[in-house]
Amino acid sequence: MWFKIGGFALVAGLLGLLIWLYGGARYHAGEANERTKWEGKVAEANAAQLKGYQLGIANQRQAETVYQRTIETKLVPVTRTIIERAAAYAQTPDGQRVCLPPDRVLALTQARSALFPAPAPTAPSGGGLALRADPPGAQPGRFNVVGAIGAEPRPR
Asked: What is the pTM of this model?
């Protein structure tokens, strides 16, 4: 009789173990399926983000190219024309009379700076002023300002 009970307990234990193992395998298989789906969605999102970055870089390069071409086609010829006109005008008698040689331009700059000197730098907030020394008896490294946190009023 004990053999029957022991055999039944052994079979029931093995059956319970198999059910537990099968349930764990199914649980881990479900986790793997969810992870696969999630990783696929993340890969799609990363690919879309990378494509957006690449498109942005391509648009920026195209805009830079258009800007450079605009400068080359519109600004450079105008600048060349102005320089050529100024050089041609300087060669005429009227241009030689009006256009100043470099030493006269330098003299004008010096005269302008003598007439209108640059204003002296000011420090309205006291930023350019030297720091005052600590009063005698002050603790080093401590603020001695009235109203500062943890400061004591100065003796008068």
From this structure: 0.35
